[in-house]
Design a protein that fits this description.
The chain has 394 residues and is mainly alpha-helical. It folds into two domains: 287 residues, Fic-like fold; 97 residues, Arc Repressor Mutant, subunit A (Orthogonal Bundle), CATH 1.10.10.10. It has 16 helices and seven strands. The strands form three sheets. A three-stranded antiparallel sheet has the order 5-7-6. Helix 2 runs parallel beside helix 12. The longest helix has 37 residues. The radius of gyration is 23 Å and the shape is globular.
Length: 394
């Protein structure tokens, strides 16, 4: 984060190394400066006419993506896949890297590597954020804690699941004096989170501006011991759902942020320095880009499903294979058991359907005597790779 105070203030602190305290040694405390952001509950964002118009355009784009989705009946799995892409990208910003294929494989039974479990937990946090955005009641700090609790399923993060910090927080370095950014002292955390919730409950400002400000303010508060970046990006989706823009689908804005992480961090620094116009412009463009790429992706998936149906050939309209094609965008890595759950058909019927899709070249079988066979929709994973590559190149 930046060093400019903006509308907030720096307060002086002193840090004494834990090993010195534990040994009872006399060690000079090192000075640092913690940042306390100003309250925003009643802030009226002042923007240039161009930036305000761009934010409105980005909001219409999010709404358009969701309206388009209603017309694409075959894309039942689109919402889940966009959510997965957003969770994966948000995790990658924090240094957690996993392919879509490995994540989909791990999601079959909620198992996999430590990294996979962390990203699956981020997916659950994203889902919780969407649920929170749907509720009629005002947002509270308990809702934000619940999002963090969903995220913090894997050790060591599980030790602080849903707990706002009661000590000093910072980003980078081993201690506040060496950190890139030092958040507000613990006594400021809960009042600032309550103030943030009050701001997020407003309905008298642009939803996109509101999401931009709320996300950046949360990152400055840094209210948890870990997981703040991922929870902060979840809050974007709380607001987009709460303000009735993203009623079905999550625009994968973290993909755009992650494609240029340095610019993303620089934008948050601009917010801290009270250069709101610059941050909102950057945020709005990222959101607009994520929508455009998601729309391209939805069209590509629909075209791929049409190709799959052609490859399958003439079958009855109630064929399990056709039902499975509708579900593959959501479950591109699938087993007979999952297929039964999705189609509510018998084990022999689902096995036949998967075999038909394998024979048609839609699915590739992976044999496993111990766990049972699974099937992979390689064409969809290729689309996902192209989707993310196109975002990175935008």
């Amino acid at each position: 984060m930046g060093r400019g105070a903006g509308r907030g203030q720096f307060v002086e602190g002193h840090w004494k190394a834990d090993f010195a305290r534990a040994a009872g040694r006399s060690s000079a405390a090192r000075r640092y400066f913690a940042y306390v952001p100003a309250n925003i509950a009643e802030r009226e964002p002042e923007l240039s006419a161009g930036t305000a118009a761009l934010a409105e355009r980005a909001g219409r784009a999010v709404l358009g993506l969701n309206n388009q989705g209603r017309e694409l009946d075959s894309l039942e799995g689109l919402g889940r896949q966009l959510l997965r892409s957003e969770a994966l990208a948000s995790s990658q910003i924090e240094g957690l890297h996993l392919s879509h294929r490995r994540l989909a494989e791990a999601a079959l039974d909620d198992h996999g590597t430590y990294e996979a479990q962390e990203i699956l937990a981020n997916m659950k946090a994203m889902k919780k954020a969407v649920e929170v955005g749907t509720q009629a009641e005002p947002l509270t700090r308990s809702d934000i804690a619940e999002i963090h609790r969903e995220l913090a399923l894997v050790p060591p993060l599980d030790r602080i699941a849903g707990q706002f910090r009661d000590d000093q927080g910072w980003i980078g370095g081993v201690a506040p004096p060496d950190a890139d950014y030092v958040g507000p002292p613990a006594e400021h955390v809960l009042p600032l989170v309550d103030d943030l919730c009050e701001f997020m409950n407003r309905d008298d400002i642009s939803p996109v501006v509101q999401a931009a400000v709320a996300h950046a303010q949360f990152e400055l508060i840094h209210p948890f011991g870990d997981g703040n970046g991922r929870v902060g990006r979840c809050l974007i989706h709380v607001l987009l759902r709460k303000r009735q823009l993203a009623t079905q689908y999550v625009p994968p804005v973290s993909l755009v942020f992650g494609a240029n992480k340095d610019a993303y961090i620089a934008g948050l620094n601009r917010f801290q320095e009270d250069e709101l116009d610059i941050w909102v412009e950057q945020f709005s463009r990222a959101l607009e880009t994520s929508v455009a790429k998601a729309e391209d992706f939805t069209t590509s998936v629909a075209d791929l499903q049409t190709t799959w149906r052609t490859q399958l050939g003439s079958v009855r309209s109630d064929a399990v294979a056709l039902t499975l094609i509708n579900q593959l965008p959501s479950f591109p890595y699938i087993t007979v058991k999952v297929g039964q759950q999705l189609t509510d058909r018998s084990q022999p019927a689902v096995s036949r359907g998967l075999a038909q899709l394998e024979e048609a070249g839609v699915l590739t079988r992976h044999r496993n005597r111990k766990k049972g066979d699974s099937w992979e929709a390689k064409g969809l994973f290729r689309l996902l790779d192209q989707f993310e590559a196109s975002v990175s190149a935008a």
